[in-house]
Amino acid sequence: MDAQEKLPKSETVRLRKRHVGQSCKLFYRADPLKIVRAVGQYMYDEKGGQYLDCINNVAHVGHCQPDVVKAACDQLAVLNTNNRFLHDNLVICARKLTSLMPAPLSICFFVNSGSEANDLALRLARSHTKNHDIITLDHAYHGHLTSLISISPYKFNLPGGSGKAEWVHVASCPDVYRGKYRAVDYPGQDMGKMYADEVLDICKKARGGGHTIAAFIAESLQSCGGQIIPPDNYLRNVYRYVREAGGVCIADEVQVGFGRVGKHWWAFQLQGEDIVPDIVTVGKPMGNGHPVAAVITTLEIAQSFKESGIEYFNTYGGNPVSCAVAIAVMDVLERQRLREHATRVGNHLLNSLRQLALKHLIIGDVRGVGLFIGIELVEDRENRIPATAKAQHIVSRMKEEYILVSSDGPDRNVLKLKPPLVFCQENADHFVKILDEVLTEMNDDEVTMEAGSPQRQKKANHPEFENSPNEKKIKIDDQQSEKIIKV
Fold first, then answer.
1. Are residues 270 and 364 in the same domain?
2. Which of 407, 278, 422, 398 is nearest to 342 (CA)?
3. C-alpha neighbours within 13 Å on the C-beta side of residue 418
4. Which Pfam families match (predicted)?
5. Residue ranges in 191-298 assigned as alpha helix (H)
6. 152 and 82 in a common domain
């Protein structure tokens, strides 16, 4: 057994089945991994097998990052208590976190998870606006609390889900590839405004039906919905419509914040410097695996919450250890220039994947920014039918090749990459190489046509068919180049 392993794997499996709720999902359920240690962008099983981690956006600055580990251990050896006592770590963390936000966002509430942060954001919105209803996006997921399942179509639309509550209004996910409005169907149109106008219609209908809008909440880049990058002008118009309706705007940065997008600290900034939410929620990467999260808002909204007369107290939120960890994470991000690294490696990976798409027609779309990337798999590019079963096969095969990747989206056909930000160019090249081999293997197994068949001939005649994914540079239009390719 590995030195870190307390039980044989078979016993771990047995005890998990016996004592852990079966609704708690395992990765690779048919043959689950037992991970006993991790460092940087690598995870290790009980046999010493090394896996390239493309899944863990939580281990933001790398698994077991030494400075973060030291900060936690040093503070835990001295004091850990609640935030009703004065402590420097709390105020230093709040000062640092708000310094990374646009100016109006200056007040912090510390919590333990993204779910707690989003739940508190709803309370702040309702307290400030005196309104009740929430606008959310289709396929959205905002957390596991009852209040958040109610605004998460990703969950409440499941067969065993509760369905949509009357106070919840669902707008279409701004997916320009396979969504309600596809860019290919509306060339030259302002796709952002087209999707945003649906939110305007929701606001009007809500008012007409006697409902009041408290907030619009959305991930700045939708993750569980399939790695969706909203089109330009989307948030600009949505935020205006919601504020005119008396609501506030909540940016859920739990998955995509703290520099994952490279160019900016926060993904909402991709839509323009003038885009400033009223409330921002952060979590997962904030603690690099330690449970710490926060809500950042304006002085006015915080004051409205205070005037409600209900004290907000969170036993562990803002404790000295959690704040020490968060401070260390932000220091590492700046000192190691991981935002710039995410831009450079992310652009290289996007370029390589787009080249790979020229060879493998199953890749319908490659989208992303920084180290937030989605690879949408389709049965055919014209009808864009989701290749769900093939996506699941690819996830399993990549695991067999010691690469951890997952799929998501409403049809689970989008391979999503959200690796630790220390993921390097060599890792990117290795990922693309193995994905190319797996896709080629699938083609060889699946295509049993005669050499002269029209389908085979069409594929063989494709100009990139014989080229490896890194031999040529992909052609992209100027607008995409400005947003994705330039470093």
1. no
2. 422
3. 27
4. Aminotran_3
5. 191-208, 234-244
6. yes
